[in-house]
From TrEMBL:
DNA-binding region: 33-52
UniProt feature coiled coil, ranges: none
Transmembrane parts of this sequence: none
Name of the protein this chain belongs to: TetR family transcriptional regulator
Domain HTH tetR-type residue range list: 10-70
InterPro entries attached to this UniProt entry: DNA-bd_HTH_TetR-type_CS, Homeodomain-like_sf, HTH-type_TetR-like_transc_reg, HTH_TetR, Tet_transcr_reg_TetR-rel_C_sf, Tscrpt_reg_MAATS_C
The organism of origin for this protein: Niveibacterium microcysteis
Entries under SUPFAM superfamilies matching the protein: Homeodomain-like, Tetracyclin repressor-like, C-terminal domain
Pfam family, one: TetR_C_2
Length: 205
């Protein structure tokens, strides 16, 4: 048997994550086994265990698969816009989050799994801790942007950068949750961009 290349291994990992997303979406995380994911991915159970020690580790990888590119969007926005308008960089990042939800099925399906298809108990309790640790990275980057805005006189007087970072973090994930569950009247989906503009405008001098 030919030895697998690095590219083959990366593709197998990709296939496993994609299969996990689909099966989690259909069955829910707690009712899905690694054997079922292996079957859906067309690989052996051993191949799944080669890449992921357990379901919790695979779950975190699933989340990172969409979260890390969005973190890159924030990093790019801060590098481009933070010199002149740090608050504009934050707004750009928030808009990108909504645009990704609208345009990218993988992102949308992943957030649906994270929000609606998972109970953070048992083995996924540790996964939640890992997710929260990585979420602190986002909060810290937001804090840096708000601090730059304050230093440049762009942040409204009396507002604390640390508090504003936490507030924006909570606003974003509250908006994402509402966007995901809002399937009938689309109130939050249609209003998302205006909500983001207002969120940032209230912080400007």
């Amino acid at each position: 048997m030919a030895r697998k290349t690095k590219e083959d291994m990366q593709q197998t990992r990709r296939d496993i994550i994609d299969a996990a997303r689909n099966v989690f979406s259909e069955r829910g995380v707690s009712r899905t086994s690694l054997e079922q994911i292996a079957s859906a991915a067309g690989v052996t159970r051993g191949a799944v265990y080669w890449h992921f020690e357990n379901k919790a580790q695979l779950f975190v990888a699933l989340r990172d698969d969409v979260a890390m590119p969005l973190m890159d969007v924030l990093e790019a926005a801060l590098q481009v816009d933070s010199g002149s308008d740090p608050l504009g960089a934050i707004e750009c990042f928030l808009m990108a989050y909504v645009e990704r939800l609208e345009s990218d099925l993988t992102t949308r399906q992943t957030f649906e799994v994270l929000i609606n298809k998972c109970e953070y108990t048992g083995e996924l309790g540790d996964a939640l801790k890992c997710v929260m640790r990585r979420s602190h990275d986002l909060s810290e980057r937001l804090r840096v942007a708000y601090q730059k805005a304050a230093e440049k006189g762009g942040l409204r007087a009396g507002l604390d950068p640390d508090a504003m970072a936490r507030d924006t973090y909570a606003f974003l994930f509250g908006l994402v949750r509402l966007w995901i569950v809002d399937r009938e009247d689309n109130e939050f989906r249609t209003a998302a961009r205006d909500m983001i503009r207002t969120h940032i405008a209230l912080r400007r001098t």
